[in-house]
């Protein structure tokens, strides 16, 4: 099936479609569009789009139908959700169901271009991994999966529950590989409250793109890993151990954990 365009944007607001087309033109992405869920599903069934940008809530359906269609078709499209009036819970659920990322509406030029940059690199990483033979996969690691006892929020961040009831959170290696490089990190402060699915830190890459880091859980920060502030390269060298971001006391672990993916499933 031939590629129809680099990106399909599905949104019931023409102003959003126009904004995406205008922003994407800055980096020479080609864009197709659909004004509702039905048209979007029809286009997905007939064409291949490497990246699909879909609103979560639309009058005739929702972005979860788009995700389901991609999953059933076995196509390698990457889905980015946009969220307006929908709740953060819906956005987090979209990551659990397979979306690569989500961005709030209205979004900025930099926010959209940064997430598209990660999507393009994620596609490249997945394509390279699929090209490997089983023997190559054993010897050549393109990225490191989360340790088996960890849980992850989509492909972005992870959590590990410690025995004393606190939780460590950090960034998945594949997210770091999609960014390519990092020269600065801005983090929250001790005693700050995190909310699942909202920004808890931001990374600046060597090309000056800013990438928002989403918290995998809600909770209160009881320790900040100052080592990664002083040495951001730890995020790339050891994202699951020395490169953790925060130790937190979770606020609603039993409820929020349902939106996290067990990293043990990555090894099946």
List the helices and strands and how they pair.
Layout: E1 7-10, H1 14-25, E2 31-34, H2 37-46, E3 51-55, E4 57-58, E5 61-62, H3 63-73, E6 78-83, H4 88-96, E7 101-104, H5 109-131, H6 134-139, E8 151-153, E9 157-161, E10 167-171, H7 173-179, E11 184-187, E12 193-194, E13 199-204, E14 210-214, E15 219-224, H8 226-230, H9 234-237, E16 246-250, H10 253-256, E17 261-262
Parallel strand pairs: 1-2, 1-3, 3-6, 6-7
Antiparallel strand pairs: 4-5, 8-9, 8-17, 9-10, 10-16, 11-13, 12-15, 13-14, 15-16
What do these coordinates show?
With about 270 residues, this protein is of the alpha+beta class. The chain has a 7-stranded antiparallel β-sheet. A 5-stranded parallel β-sheet has the order 2-1-3-6-7, sandwiched between helices. Helix 2 packs parallel to helix 3 and helix 5 crosses helix 7. The protein is about 35% helix and about 25% strand. It is globular, with a radius of gyration of 18 Å.
Biggest sheet descriptor = 7 strands, antiparallel
Number of helices: 10
Number of domains: 2
CATH topology of the largest domain: Rossmann fold
The average pLDDT score comes to 93
Please provide the ordered H/E string of secondary-structure elements: EHEHEEEHEHEHHEEEHEEEEEHHEHE
**Overall geometric form:** globular
Second-tier CATH architecture of the largest domain: 3-Layer(aba) Sandwich
What proportion of the residues form beta strands (DSSP E)?
A: 25-35%
Radius of gyration: 18 Å
| Spatial order of strands in the largest sheet | 12-15-16-10-9-8-17
State the share of residues found in helices, binned by percent: 25-40%
Low-pLDDT regions: none
Number of β-strand runs: 17
CATH class of the largest domain: Alpha Beta
From the N-terminal CA to the C-terminal CA, the straight-line distance is: 29 Å
Given helix and strand content, the structural type is: alpha+beta
Q: CATH superfamily name of the largest domain?
A: Response regulator
């Amino acid at each position: 099936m031939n590629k129809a365009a680099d990106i399909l944007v599905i949104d019931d607001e023409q102003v959003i479609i126009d904004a995406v087309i205008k922003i994407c033109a800055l980096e020479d992405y080609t864009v197709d569009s659909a004004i509702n869920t039905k048209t979007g599903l029809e286009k997905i069934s007939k064409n291949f789009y490497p990246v699909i940008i879909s609103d979560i809530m639309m009058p005739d359906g929702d972005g979860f139908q788009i995700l389901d269609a991609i999953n059933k078709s076995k196509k390698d499209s990457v889905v980015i959700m946009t969220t307006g009036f929908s709740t953060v819970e819906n956005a987090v659920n979209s990551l659990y169901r397979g979306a690569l990322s989500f961005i709030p509406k209205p979004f900025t030029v930099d926010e959209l271009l940064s997430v598209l940059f990660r999507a393009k690199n994620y596609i490249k990483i997945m394509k390279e991994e699929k090209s490997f033979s089983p023997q190559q996969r054993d010897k050549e690691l393109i990225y490191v999966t989360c340790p088996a006892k960890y849980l992850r929020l989509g492909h972005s961040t992870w959590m590990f529950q410690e025995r004393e009831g606190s939780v460590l959170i950090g960034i998945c290696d594949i997210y770091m590989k999609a960014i390519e490089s990092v020269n600065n990190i801005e983090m929250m402060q001790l005693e700050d409250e995190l909310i699942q699915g909202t920004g808890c830190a931001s990374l600046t890459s060597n090309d000056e793109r800013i990438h928002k880091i989403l918290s995998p859980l809600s909770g209160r920060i009881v320790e900040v890993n100052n080592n990664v502030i002083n040495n951001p390269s730890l995020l790339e060298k050891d994202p699951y151990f020395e490169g953790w971001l925060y130790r937190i006391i979770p606020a609603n672990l039993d409820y929020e954990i349902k939106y996290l993916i067990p990293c043990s499933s990555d090894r099946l």
